[in-house]
Amino acid sequence: MTPFPRHVAVIMDGNGRWATERGLSRDEGHRRGAEAVRRVVRAADELGVQALTLYAFSVQNWERPRAEVGHLMRLLCTFVTEETPELLARGIRVVTIGDLRRLPAFARAPLAALVVASARNQAMTLCLALSYGGREALTAAARALAAEVAGGRLRPEEIDEQQLAARLDTSALPPLDLLIRTSGEQRLSNFLLWEAAYAELHFTPVLWPDFGRETLEIALADFARRQRRFGLTGAQVEAKLARG
Fold it and tell me: I need a surface site. Which of 14, 91, 170, 220 has the fewest CB within 10 A?
């Protein structure tokens, strides 16, 4: 059986560079990036991906110029508003990870409404990472464990990988299988640090506004050619795959 990733995550990089190369504004680059999101969500759903996580806005992105941040928040609001009918029609469940409290109300409200409206959907899960950081997520999980220990609900010796993973926002998603980064950069940039421990990494020089079904299929084909070992021997991998 050809391996197929259940959970795919994408670091959507290159909007600004795409615009600069064409003599366009960064705002136009972000707008074209939003169009790429639409294409990729549709393609992932049609190709059978169970969960798609998109790094839409990092904690560090708040440090960008105020005007650019404002434009990104308006794009988010527009995307959610315009895409809600199709996402619901496709049966896609939308969830979020990150500190949404920092988002402006005009963007947070329609997003929250979409999350509620799609909660019972059983097709692909679209996870939007907003105001998200991997280190921040791990810190929050550690604080949650510390609070439970302090409250007497958990003993220190009971803390293990499963306990920590259960307190991450991604705990309800399938394990991350494939992480894609566009634009040729080869780093995680504080994205899904815990979840990416055994994920396959695919780096493409394609800038995000140019990313679509074809480039997604290339990444999926690259994944299918790899032998995932998880730190195991070849025989152990085969046994693991046989068990599903």
Answer: 91
